[in-house]
Amino acid sequence: MEIKMKNTELIYQLKEENILPPEGFRQLLETLTEGEREELSAAAREVREREYGKAVYIRGLIEFTNICRNDCYYCGIRKSNDRADRYRLTPEEILECAREGYGLGFRTFVLQGGEDGWFTAERLEQIIRSIKKEFPECAITLSVGERDREDYVRWFEAGADRYLLRHETANEEHYRHLHPADMSLKHRKECLYALREIGYQVGAGFMVGSPGQTVDNLIEDLYFLRDLRPHMIGIGPYLSHPDTPFAGEKDGSLERTLTLLSILRLMFPKVLLPATTALGTLDPTGREKGLMAGANVVMPNLSPVSVRKKYELYSNKICTGEESAQCIHCLDIRVKSAGYEIVSDRGDSRVN
Ligand code: 5AD
Ligand code: FES
User: Fold this and answer.
1) Which of 25, 180, 290, 324 is the most buried (most CB within 10 A)?
2) 299 Cβ closer than 6 Å to some ligand 1 atom
3) Which ligand gives the minimal distance to the CA of 286?
4) Do strands 60-65 and 162-164 pair parallel, antiparallel, or not at all (unpaired)?
């Protein structure tokens, strides 16, 4: 007869060994009580503080284009959404965002956008070079989707340091449920392994509670991440957008997102793990809760206020109003309220 371990024992095992058998992950994801989730969270916090102390790293997010050639069913800026108000920042505007961010203490800039063909490899290279020239001590993170390996190499050589490309789901069938036929999980994974090989600090990740997601899918995500060994992992709740084929689908759960953040911290003690904007959108204190569950990064918006509402991947996104022009001050208070402290350095990954 199989002897079932208690959740408390599973949490201890995960903390000691950084991994559980699939059935252990399943049990945690399906049966944790509120009190046990607090235990899991405390274990994750302990590991996070052992590795990073109370430091929270900040990344200035520059959403520089919402034009996208892809048609992911969950995403508000998918190409078929003709209600999206499209924009593209000029290279000078992007540089201006970085300048403003530098003044506010940011030492990492994340250039994120849809897969917009106007930004050829060469144009992005010029942008990377101009930011690096003015701010040589800052890190540049790219988040511009699937491109040719030679583009990735070119940008790395131009000075880009990191690359975010969420895998979205590691399960083939679920990937098909979330994306049209012209996208492929195989290609996405190839991009991730190529980026890692080129020398980027790489971030993968997934949405929690995306339509059709099962607990088995999540377990596959955890094992995929274990294989990839990324430097950063971005997860946040799926949030429905009315102008997509998934309009009316249920949002992901706060509790499950927090559980997964803690599991990831215990699996990957040194990983850079953001408390995401989507988490802050799902719950007014979602990011604080994320930090207390093991996250150690926040990514405030540096995009010009005039375009913030337009980069609408999901509904009711926070930090898009006039009042939030300088999110950093608000976040500083929020991070302190969670018992942590924003630090103004590059915050490089300690994963090797
Ligand atoms: N809800 C939550 N996250 C979303 N993303 C895209 N659309 C949504 C949505 N509706 C996430 C994807 C993508 C990242 C930039 O934003 O995981 O990789
Ligand atoms: Fe943006 Fe609070 S962090 S308004």
Assistant:
1) 290
2) no
3) 2
4) unpaired
Assess whether the C-beta atom of 307 lies below 6 angstroms from ligand 1. no
- Quick: pLDDT tens for 279-326: 999 999 999 999 999 999 999 999 999 999 999 999 999 999 876 667
> Which bin fits 294, alpha (ψ -120 to 50), beta or left (φ > 0)?
left
Cross-strand bridge partners of residue 142: 111, 163
Neighbours of 150 (CB within 10 A): 9
Query: Which residue from 218, 312, 231 is spatially nearest to 257, judged by alpha carbons?
Result: 218
Nearest of 117, 98, 191 to residue 153 by alpha carbon? 191
Distance 99 CA to ligand 2 centre (A): 19
Q: pLDDT for 135-155, tens place per residue?
A: 999 999 999 999 999 999 999
Question: 3-class DSSP state for residue 133?
Answer: helix
Burial annotation 36-69 (CB, 10 A radius, 16+ → b, else e): bbebbbebbbebbeeebebbbbbbbbbbbbbbbe
Structure tokens that stand for 1 in this block? 């007869």
